[in-house]
Write a structure and sequence with these properties.
The complex is a heterodimer of chains A (201) and B (226). Chain A has 201 residues and is an all-alpha fold. Chain A has nine helices and two strands. Chain A has helices at 3-7, 11-16, 19-40, 47-61, 71-100, 118-128, 132-142, 148-155, 159-200; strands at 110-111, 114-115. In chain B, helix 1 packs across helix 2 and helix 1 crosses helix 3 (48-71). The chains are: A mainly alpha (201), B alpha+beta (226).
Chain lengths: 201, 226
C-alpha cells in the first residue's frame, strides 16, 4: 500500500453514485475493512459474512457521506457497528446451531477458513487481547504496511498519537507473549514434577 | 529523535516511551541515523534492548503473516450488484418485516421461494427427473441417508405434508481436514404444512417466564372470509 493508492481512489464519484467508482473504492479499502472487523468482532463471528454486510451497507449508505475526506472514518464507524452488533448476533446464532447438533466451535483456532499454527495463534491471541486503542493501529500496521499517515486518516487521530500507540501496543504484545510463555513453562514444569512423583511412588 | 537525549536524566516513564518508539521505528524501517545513535546509547546501558528488538521484530512478522492471510478473504468479497442488488434485497426484507404475525410472514416467505423450491425428490436422490417409483425404492433400513431423505420428501409431497426443500443451505461451519478434504456442517431447510385443530403461541408471563398460550382459532379470519 502506498501514498498513491489513497489519492487515486475515486471517493467523490463513488459518493455521487457512480457504481464503477464505488466498486473501485471498495476494492481499495476492503482489506483494511477486514482488519477493523478482526479487531472488533466476537471471535465466533464469521469474517466473510461480516464483510458482506459491510459491502451491503456501503452500497446503501455511501451517498449520505457529506465530505469525501470523511469517507474513511465513516466506513470505519460502519464497520465497527457491524462487527459488534451483527457479529454478536451471528455468533450467538452459529453457536446455538452448533450446540443443537452437539458441536462446539473453537474460533480461536480459526480465522476465516484458515487454520493457524500454534505460534500464529499465540501472536494473534495476544494481539486481540490488547486494549482496543492499541489493537486496531497495531493490526492495521500489519496490513500491507499501511503508513502512519493512512492509519491516522482512518482513525481520525494525529500521526504522532498513532506512532505512540503502535510502539506501546507492540511492547504490550511482547509482554503478553512473554507472560504466556512463562506460564506455560511453569505449568509444564509442575506437570513433569508431578509425573516424577507419581512414578516414584 | 535527538542523540542528545540523556537517558539517565529522563523520568522512567519517558525513558520507557523512548525505548518503545526506538524499537518500533527500527521494526518499521523508519529509524533515522539519530534514532540509531540513541538506540546504541540505550543498548550500552541496557543490553536487553537487543533481545526485545529481536522478539518484537519476530512477533511483528508473524502477526503480519497471519493478518495478510486472514484478510485475503476480503479479495473475494465484491459489492452486491445485478438482480441481487442491495436495493432489491432491502425492499424484500422490509416488505417481509412490515407484515405482522408469523402466519402471514410464513406465507410471504413461501411465496418468495415458489418456483425455486426443489419439488422433485428424484433430484435429491440424484435419480431421473421422473422421481423414484415405489417399486424401485430401497427399503428404508437399507437406504442411504440421501435415499431415505428422498423417500421422505416424496412421501411428504404425495400426502401434502411436505411443500419442498429450500434451495439455500445454511453453512454453519467449514473445517479443512488434514487429508485435504473439507468438512462442512450445514442446515437443510424443509418447508412442511400441517392442518391443526389446536394451536399455541409463545408468550411471557408477568415475571418474565416463557409460557405457551392457546390460540383461539375461531377468532382468526379464515382464508375464505379474507
Amino acid at each position: 500500500m502506498n501514498e498513491r493508492w489513497d489519492q487515486t481512489l475515486p471517493i467523490e464519484s463513488a459518493i455521487a453514485g457512480h457504481s464503477d467508482a464505488l466498486s473501485q473504492v471498495w476494492v481499495g479499502v476492503r482489506r483494511w475493512v477486514a482488519v477493523i472487523l478482526i479487531a472488533h468482532k466476537p471471535r465466533e463471528a464469521d469474517l466473510e459474512d461480516l464483510l458482506q454486510l459491510v459491502a451491503l451497507q456501503v452500497c446503501r449508505k455511501v451517498h449520505e457521506v457529506r465530505d469525501p475526506s470523511l469517507f474513511k472514518p465513516w466506513l470505519r464507524t460502519v464497520t465497527i457497528n457491524i462487527a459488534r452488533e451483527q457479529g454478536r448476533k451471528a455468533s450467538r446464532k452459529r453457536v446455538g446451531m452448533l450446540r443443537l447438533v452437539g458441536r462446539t466451535r473453537n474460533e480461536a483456532d480459526q480465522i476465516g477458513n484458515m487454520q493457524l499454527s500454534e505460534d500464529a495463534k499465540r501472536v494473534l491471541d495476544a494481539a486481540l487481547s490488547l486494549p482496543e486503542k492499541y489493537r486496531e493501529p497495531v493490526l492495521m500496521r500489519c496490513q500491507q504496511s499501511m503508513s502512519y499517515k493512512q492509519i491516522a486518516e482512518v482513525l481520525s487521530l494525529p500521526e504522532t498519537t498513532i506512532e505512540t500507540r503502535i510502539a506501546r501496543g507492540r511492547r504490550m504484545l511482547r509482554e503478553t507473549i512473554e507472560l504466556q510463555t512463562k506460564q506455560e513453562l511453569e505449568a509444564e514444569k509442575k506437570q513433569r514434577s508431578r509425573a516424577i512423583r507419581v512414578g516414584g511412588a | 529523535m535527538s542523540n542528545d537525549h540523556n537517558q539517565s536524566n529522563m523520568s522512567p516513564e519517558n525513558s520507557a516511551h523512548l525505548r518503545d518508539l526506538l524499537i518500533s521505528r527500527v521494526i518499521d524501517g523508519s529509524a533515522s541515523p539519530e534514532d540509531w545513535s540513541s538506540f546504541r546509547i540505550l543498548a550500552a546501558t541496557d543490553a536487553e534492548v537487543w533481545t526485545d528488538l529481536s522478539d518484537a521484530q519476530r512477533e511483528h512478522e508473524a502477526l503480519c503473516e497471519v493478518m495478510h492471510a486472514a484478510t485475503a478473504i476480503a479479495d473475494g468479497i465484491d459489492l452486491p450488484g445485478g438482480s441481487g442488488s442491495p436495493l432489491v434485497f432491502e425492499s424484500r426484507v422490509t416488505t417481509a418485516s412490515r407484515w405482522g404475525g408469523w402466519a402471514i410472514a410464513a406465507v410471504v416467505l413461501l411465496g418468495w421461494f415458489t418456483g425455486t423450491i426443489s419439488m422433485n425428490p428424484g433430484q435429491v436422490n440424484g435419480g431421473a427427473s421422473g422421481g423414484p417409483t415405489a417399486g424401485l425404492l430401497p427399503a428404508l433400513q437399507q437406504a442411504s441417508p440421501d435415499e431415505a431423505f428422498g423417500q421422505y420428501l416424496h412421501a411428504g409431497q404425495t400426502s401434502g405434508q411436505v411443500v419442498g426443500e429450500m434451495p439455500n443451505q445454511i453453512v454453519i461451519e467449514t473445517l479443512p481436514l488434514e487429508d485435504g478434504t473439507i468438512e462442512v456442517t450445514f442446515i437443510r431447510q424443509i418447508v412442511e404444512r400441517r392442518v391443526l385443530d389446536k394451536a399455541y403461541r409463545e408468550a411471557v408471563d408477568e415475571f418474565g417466564n416463557p409460557i405457551v398460550l392457546p390460540v383461539d382459532i375461531q377468532s382468526l379470519k379464515t382464508r375464505k372470509s379474507q
